């Protein structure tokens, strides 16, 4: 009986820690999109979508100088195994409404900035989810995201449809938000900055 009680306390504690880390109850939902928060310091990526919350450990790095990354699906022919699925990431500064291209030059070589699983995707930079079980939970969550935003991307003639965004939360980004008068936990931050939430045309 005592053991049973202890187990409940421990499970409760673990759940509290996990859900508290991203303070999801303070994040206003953004349509039926996927909202992700990435904490470089703990290497945790947490996403909330229509079917719940998924949190995975990630490896890799995102291009510096951006607080937000729009997530777009890669158009693939036919059914591909979940391992080889990837999502393109379109960088955006929090105070800008336009996104940048997901293809960037690193030492004069073009790379796709992505959220992905396979280590063998060598032309890809960004965040990698090594655990395939956790990765498949992300895929299920993203599939359920029916909220699509059509956005402009710098230097691209066609518009791009995004199903969600990753917000990067670290000390540097926090300082920049405060500089813009967007307090930590304020609507400006948790409403996806000036892009989603505060921009009436985006979710109107
Ligand atoms: C979200 O999806 C549900 C069910 O598909 C739909 O009824 C609802 O209107 C959607 N909400 C928004 C804000 O798009
Ligand atoms: C956004 O902030 C950067 C500096 O962080 C600045 O260079 C840029 O002009 C700002 N853009 C807008 C639209 O205010
Ligand atoms: C990025 O991905 C696109 C679409 O899958 C592909 O056509 C392109 O070759 C890739 N670019 C690089 C630099 O890998």
Task: Give the low-pLDDT segments.
Answer: 6-17, 182-204
Number of alpha- plus pi-helical segments: 5
Ions, cofactors and other bound molecules: 2-acetamido-2-deoxy-beta-D-glucopyranose
How far apart the termini lie comes to 54 Å
Number of β-strand runs: 12
Task: Work out the count of structural domains.
Answer: 1
Keywords: Signal
Signal peptide: 1-16
Please give a quick description of this structure.
With 204 residues, this protein is α+β, with helices and mostly antiparallel strands. It has helices spanning 2-21, 132-143, 171-179, 187-190, 200-203, and strands at residues 34-39, 44-49, 52-57, 59-60, 68-73, 86-92, 103-106, 109-116, 124-128, 149-151, 160-162, 164-168.
Word description of this protein:
With 204 residues, this protein is α+β, with helices and mostly antiparallel strands. It has one domain (2-202). The protein is 24% helix and 30% strand. It has helices at residues 2-21, 132-143, 171-179, 187-190, 200-203, and strands at residues 34-39, 44-49, 52-57, 59-60, 68-73, 86-92, 103-106, 109-116, 124-128, 149-151, 160-162, 164-168. The strands form 2 sheets. Strands 1, 2, 3, 4, 5, 6, 7, 8, 9 and 12 form a 10-stranded mixed sheet that branches. A hairpin with a 4-residue loop joins strand 1 (34-39) and strand 2. The radius of gyration is 17 Å and the shape is globular. It binds 2-acetamido-2-deoxy-beta-D-glucopyranose (3 copies).
